Design the sequence.
């Protein structure tokens, strides 16, 4: 080698530690030493420590034992950590669904004027987000057929909890019972129990048949004490409810609210809640706008006009400004905790507004035709997959004789736990349902793996 | 001084700004050839049908009519509107972060490791024994914490007897609402002349019926509750628990820990203290921490580590669940990234600069600040001017105004929290905005704002005749 730059001694060594290149102090505080000196002089203090009026016995020395890292080191470390999530194809659903999120959703929702803003306490300077939320409310209004939609709850479970307390406020039934179907997910029920705890509501289950409501069983479970009946369409077992009209008729003349749980994609195709007599619609709106991100979502909440002043959460309304132009603003805030305190309709303050933005963009991207077509596909895919699974010896699918949306349960001969575990080892995640059933969810994001799944199930069941 | 002319897109045909999507196009689509029989489907949906380029322009224009932290200072008191580092979005956006909540724990070890590490970080920062990350917002954290307190009293067979929660008058509205949601009666505590908890009033109010005292420290005036040890003794001697509202934790990072002050239960507002974006109103996350002995009441599941395997565990006397899954995962992931970026030194520097900035700003404005010494925020008085009007006039100067008219202990309150992320120069611009308004005449204030996308908005009509959707606009 023709060495024109001879090696010289250097004290550089390769730093492989995660702490490499970490700054002292916070990288997000703009002050240099001179700034601090001038600011302290203006305040009349010698040292920043003087500004802390904290008695000695409760002072802390700041040694949490948390090591600071460079941006790159944090990213590398968390990338490596998350890589420990197994690389499996998910056929999972049960209230949390994966649909393809188009790139415009990230691109637009990450615009910093949106994501770095907060609740629109100053509407004049927040018209953009207010219009987004107004359009979101309009979308939910259209798809639920309800008169009023708020601009988000945390998730489907907390939205159901809020519906129960709404029923308690607006209904004068003799008792305080919330009637839920036996198929209600344990997690949703557990959240509902906590919302019911304060007002002293009692949760009672009614039996269902073939994965859907048995109107006779519902009617006999009803009493004068029931504030609200909750029904899902589709259920988290994937069953499309076939008795909504009858349920509506049963509840029509009672002091009992009819609360329907659904999601925005299913609502694009399935029966309009308003047409079957629903009073409140809750559910997960995040099926549009978010992939499966460990259950983070956005709660849907819509209801009939007569409950408007008892609605929980934020509402955006149209108004006029001083020029007479149409504008948008948070409205009916006297329902809310920052005004009404302990008499507020809910304690919710921060909500899921940014997810509402994403949901609105995704829905607008699909449009009415795209939404309906995708929803229709969500009825065909599970039917097809169930039929193919049913052809495998030892598998009976779907377990319920019904139409399905995205997912279905399948009965299997043998130990479901072992089958699910074996499938996971071979790269597929499905739900175990008890000792002898599994649940499989199929959408446009995993259908290309359906053939492999079928082949693998065939091998595992053999 | 700086000026700010906000973008405003309008079309004369739409009697306002950027038309609604529904005003650009509204298409009715009726499904045909569906797999489902007609009696299980709806007649159709009527929604906007627009192309991707139009969609992008629509939302881009709306974003231009919105003010965020990246636009300028946003000193909303008790909201901690600090800079949101961008790298956390890249981490949250990676495909490995997108996993289903019902995965067997074995298949979600990466996600569970992040949960476990963040539980640990927050335990250290709060001086708490254990942390749950499940509550999806600060208010949800409050409800969770109060349900833990309730479970504790029920465990001690004092559930029926302890039916009151004490809340200082100056507390956040959510404290009252959360305690009421959990079924408690609220006892409001007056402040003393210094703006802190009145110890005599507290001693008078506590007793056998006290379940807990909810306290923010520093309080909403930015004042540290110096008597915190005595407060803790009074509440504990009466058999009650002490609850810490973490909204103002940014002031104390590394300087004092709620656990060391005697708090039994606390919540963190990670979107405030740990810089996850506020997203136009959320999502945030409101993890709670508890002292030793209360872990068994925490929501289910908790993430534990067993050897090198992360598992999900139901605490022995768990209150159950407060979110359908494990809370706002992406927000928690960004929180983890922020904390591990800063480390001890960065966290301590954060509170130092937050408190320095608030003090410097207060020094530079020509308004009375009646209470002190304050920390990360202060409450100035707009004096003879209505604080809400004062705020509108500030908008024309390229800043977001403070929280207004609250806490009520200060007349025409301007509750101001600049955060550590504003530079000296930016604080001076912000002070100039305050001072310009304090010198403006009444007519100028009444005419403001003039430079924003919307002029002063009529709130009364909006509430009297609510129009909450495009469908109702045409009613």
Sequence:
């Amino acid at each position: 080698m023709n060495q024109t730059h001879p090696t010289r001694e250097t004290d550089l060594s390769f730093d492989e530690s995660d702490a490499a290149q970490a700054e002292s102090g916070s990288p997000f505080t703009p002050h240099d030493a001179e700034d601090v000196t001038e600011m302290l002089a203006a305040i009349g203090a010698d040292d920043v420590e003087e500004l802390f009026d904290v008695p000695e016995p409760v002072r802390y020395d700041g040694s949490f034992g948390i090591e600071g890292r460079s941006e790159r080191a944090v990213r590398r470390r968390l990338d490596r950590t998350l890589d420990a999530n197994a690389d499996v194809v998910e056929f999972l659903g049960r209230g949390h669904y994966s649909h393809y999120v188009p790139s415009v959703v990230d691109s637009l929702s990450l615009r910093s004027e949106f994501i770095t803003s907060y609740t629109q306490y100053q509407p004049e300077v927040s018209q953009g987000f207010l219009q987004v939320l107004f359009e979101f409310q309009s979308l939910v209004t259209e798809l639920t057929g309800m008169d009023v939609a708020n601009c988000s709850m945390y998730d489907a479970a907390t939205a159901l909890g809020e519906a129960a307390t709404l029923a308690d406020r607006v209904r004068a039934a003799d008792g305080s019972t919330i009637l839920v179907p036996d198929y209600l997910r344990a997690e949703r029920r557990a959240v509902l129990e906590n919302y019911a705890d304060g007002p002293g509501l009692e949760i009672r289950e009614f039996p269902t048949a073939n994965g859907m409501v048995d109107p006779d069983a519902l009617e006999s479970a009803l009493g004068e004490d029931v504030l609200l009946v909750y029904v899902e369409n589709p259920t988290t077992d994937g069953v499309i409810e076939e008795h909504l009209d009858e349920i509506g008729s049963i509840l029509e003349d009672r002091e009992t609210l009819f609360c329907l749980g659904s999601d925005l994609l299913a609502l694009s195709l399935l029966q309009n809640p308003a047409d079957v007599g629903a009073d409140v619609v809750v559910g997960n709106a995040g099926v549009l706008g978010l992939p499966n991100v460990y259950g983070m979502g956005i709660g849907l909440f819509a209801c009939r006009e007569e409950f408007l002043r008892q609605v929980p959460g934020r509402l955006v309304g149209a108004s006029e400004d001083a020029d007479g132009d149409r504008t948008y603003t948070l409205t009916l805030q006297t329902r809310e905790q920052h005004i009404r305190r302990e008499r507020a309709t809910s304690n919710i303050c921060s909500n899921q507004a940014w997810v509402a933005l994403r949901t609105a963009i995704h829905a607008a991207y699909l449009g009415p035709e795209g939404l309906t077509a995708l929803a229709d596909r969500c009825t065909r895919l599970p039917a097809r997959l169930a039929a193919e699974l049913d052809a495998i010896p030892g598998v009976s699918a779907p377990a319920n004789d019904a139409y399905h949306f995205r997912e279905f349960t399948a009965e299997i001969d043998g130990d479901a736990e072992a089958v699910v575990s074996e499938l996971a080892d071979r790269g597929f995640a499905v739900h175990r349902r008890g000792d002898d059933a599994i649940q499989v969810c199929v959408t446009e994001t995993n259908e290309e793996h359906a053939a492999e799944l079928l082949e693998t199930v065939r091998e595992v069941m053999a | 001084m700086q000026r700010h002319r906000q973008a405003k897109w309008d079309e004369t045909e739409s009697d306002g700004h950027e038309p609604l999507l529904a005003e650009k196009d509204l298409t009715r689509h009726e499904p045909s050839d569906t797999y489902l029989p007609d009696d299980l489907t709806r007649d159709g949906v009527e929604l906007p049908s627009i192309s991707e380029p139009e969609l992008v322009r629509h939302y881009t224009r709306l974003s231009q009519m919105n003010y965020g932290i990246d636009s300028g200072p946003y000193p909303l008191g008790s909201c901690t509107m600090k800079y949101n580092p961008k790298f956390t979005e890249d981490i949250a956006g990676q495909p490995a972060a997108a996993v289903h909540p019902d995965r067997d724990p074995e298949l979600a070890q990466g996600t569970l490791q992040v949960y476990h590490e963040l539980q640990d970080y927050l335990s250290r920062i709060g001086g708490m024994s254990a942390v749950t990350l499940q509550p999806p917002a600060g208010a949800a954290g409050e409800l969770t914490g109060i349900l833990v307190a309730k479970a504790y009293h029920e465990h001690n067979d004092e559930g029926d007897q302890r039916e009151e929660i004490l809340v200082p008058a100056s507390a956040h509205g959510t404290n009252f609402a959360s305690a009421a949601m959990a079924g408690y009666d609220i006892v409001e505590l007056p402040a003393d002349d210094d703006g802190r908890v009145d110890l005599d009033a507290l001693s008078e109010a506590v007793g056998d019926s006290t379940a807990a005292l909810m306290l923010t420290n520093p309080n909403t005036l930015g004042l540290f509750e110096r008597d915190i040890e005595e407060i803790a003794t009074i509440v504990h001697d009466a058999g009650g628990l002490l609850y810490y509202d973490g909204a103002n934790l940014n002031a104390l990072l590394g300087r004092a820990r709620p656990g060391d002050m005697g708090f039994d239960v606390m919540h963190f507002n990670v979107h405030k203290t740990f810089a996850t974006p506020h997203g136009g109103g959320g999502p945030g996350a409101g993890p709670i921490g508890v002292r030793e002995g209360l872990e068994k009441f925490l929501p289910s599941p908790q993430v534990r580590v067993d050897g090198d395997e992360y598992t999900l565990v139901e605490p022995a006397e768990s209150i159950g669940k407060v979110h359908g899954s494990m809370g706002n995962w992406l927000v928690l992931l960004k929180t983890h990234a922020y904390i591990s970026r800063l480390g001890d030194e960065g966290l301590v520097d954060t509170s130092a600069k937050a408190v320095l900035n608030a003090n410097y700003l207060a020094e530079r404005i020509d308004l009375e600040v009646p209470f002190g010494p304050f920390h990360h925020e202060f409450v100035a008085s707009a004096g003879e001017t209505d604080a809400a009007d004062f705020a509108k006039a500030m908008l024309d100067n390229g800043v977001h105004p403070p929280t207004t008219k609250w806490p009520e202990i200060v007349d025409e309150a301007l509750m101001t929290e600049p955060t550590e992320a504003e530079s000296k120069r930016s604080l001076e611009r912000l002070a100039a905005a305050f001072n310009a308004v304090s010198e403006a005449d009444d007519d100028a204030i009444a005419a403001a704002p003039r430079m924003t996308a919307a002029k002063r908005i009529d709130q009364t009509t909006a509430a009297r005749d609510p129009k909450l959707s495009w469908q109702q606009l045409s009613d």
Summary: The CA atoms of residues 365 and 431 of chain B lie 5 Å apart.
